Amino acid sequence: MSRSKPIHLAKPDRRSRAAWRALVTRWRHSQLTSVDSGATENVDPQQLRWWAWKLGIPAGTPSDVSLSPSSASVGFIELPMLETTLELQIRNHALRFPASIAPAQLSAIIRAIEVAS
Description:
This protein is mostly helical and 117 residues long. The protein is 44% helix and 10% strand. Strands 1-2 form a two-stranded antiparallel ribbon. Helix 1 packs across helix 3.
């Protein structure tokens, strides 16, 4: 009966929070899987996923978003404007409508405001 070779487990990574933030950010910007990025960075993919969760770094993080510790804790993600809006100023009020509003609808709204005034 042959003896099996002993299994050597790697010591857990003792990286700082900032080092993990940098690793996770590189992974999220690379569009690689956690397995591929883990192999590239020489880290356990499960740890990479856990730190992404722990740090609150979502998948597909845009590369132009700063992930400094101070801004990441705010939890603000700027989203692109999806539709152009029209703004109608009436006295001290602003009414905003999607640019796709039908002209007849906009006319009806303006007439209703004029009648109410």
